[in-house]
C-alpha cells in the first residue's frame, strides 16, 4: 500500500543543508516502505504565511501546502536552529494549521545548525511543540551540525546511522515493516525451578 510522506523544510537558502537533511531522511524511509515523497518549502511561502497570520485567511498557494501536510500519512519536519530554537518561519507555518489537524500523525523531527551546541533544541523546543499538536513523534530526532557533513568514517558516519535509525522508526510507525517478534518466555513450573536449585518443595 503506497503512502504519502511529506517533507516540510524551513531552510532559507537554496540549496540548503536543511533541505538536504530532509531529503536524506525521506530517502532512508522509502528504502523501508513504499511511499510517495512530497516537499513543502517554507521559504517559498514566507509572504503567504505572514499574510495568513494577519488576516486569518490562507492564500491558495498556502492552502495547498497546508492540505498537503494535513493529508500526509507521515511528516518529516526540518528546521534550521536560530538562537537555540526553531526558526520563526517554521513555527509560523504550524501556527496557521488548524488545531487538531496533526493529531496522531507520525512525525520525524530534524534540525540543522552551524554548531552541535544547538542539538538540544530538538528536545526542548521541537518535541514539546509537536507533543502539544498531539502528533505521534518518533523517538529518534536527527540533528546535523556543519561538521556532520563529512567523510563516511567520520562524523558523517554517525549522521548516517542516526538517519537510518530515525527513518526505520518512522517506517515502523507507518506500518511499512513488521516489528521485531517478541520472544516467548519458556514456562518452567515452580517445582522444576526449585529442583534446579537443589531445593525440595514441601506443602
UniProtKB/TrEMBL annotation:
Q: State the source organism's domain of life.
A: Bacteria
Record GO terms (molecular function): FMN reductase (NADPH) activity
Q: What is its EC number?
A: 1.5.1.38
SUPFAM superfamilies in UniProt: Flavoproteins
The main enzyme category here is oxidoreductase
Q: Which residues form the NADPH-dependent FMN reductase-like domain?
A: 5-149
Pfam families given in the database record: FMN_red (PF03358)
What are the alphabetically sorted keywords of the record? Flavoprotein, FMN, Oxidoreductase
Protein name, per record: FMN reductase
Organism of origin: Amycolatopsis endophytica
Amino acid at each position: 500500500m503506497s503512502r504519502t510522506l511529506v517533507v516540510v523544510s524551513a531552510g532559507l537558502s537554496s540549496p540548503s543543508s536543511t533541505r538536504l537533511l530532509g531529503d536524506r531522511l525521506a530517502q532512508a524511509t522509502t528504502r523501508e516502505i513504499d511511499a510517495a515523497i512530497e516537499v513543502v518549502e517554507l521559504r517559498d511561502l514566507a509572504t503567504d504565511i505572514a499574510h495568513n497570520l494577519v488576516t486569518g485567511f490562507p492564500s491558495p498557494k498556502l492552502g495547498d501546502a497546508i492540505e498537503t501536510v494535513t493529508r500526509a500519512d507521515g511528516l518529516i519536519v526540518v528546521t534550521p536552529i536560530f538562537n537555540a530554537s526553531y526558526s520563526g518561519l517554521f513555527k509560523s507555518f504550524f501556527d496557521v494549521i488548524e488545531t487538531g489537524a496533526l493529531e496522531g500523525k507520525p512525525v520525524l523531527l530534524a534540525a540543522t545548525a552551524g554548531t552541535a551546541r544547538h542539538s538540544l533544541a530538538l528536545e526542548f523546543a521541537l518535541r514539546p511543540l509537536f507533543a502539544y499538536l498531539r502528533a505521534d513523534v518518533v523517538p529518534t530526532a536527527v540533528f546535523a551540525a556543519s561538521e556532520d557533513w563529512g567523510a563516511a568514517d567520520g562524523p558523517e558516519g554517525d549522521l548516517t546511522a542516526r538517519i537510518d535509525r530515525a527513518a526505520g522508526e518512522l517506517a515502523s510507525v507507518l506500518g511499512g515493516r513488521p516489528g521485531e517478534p517478541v520472544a516467548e518466555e519458556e514456562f518452567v513450573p515452580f517445582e522444576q525451578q526449585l529442583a534446579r536449585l537443589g531445593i525440595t518443595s514441601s506443602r
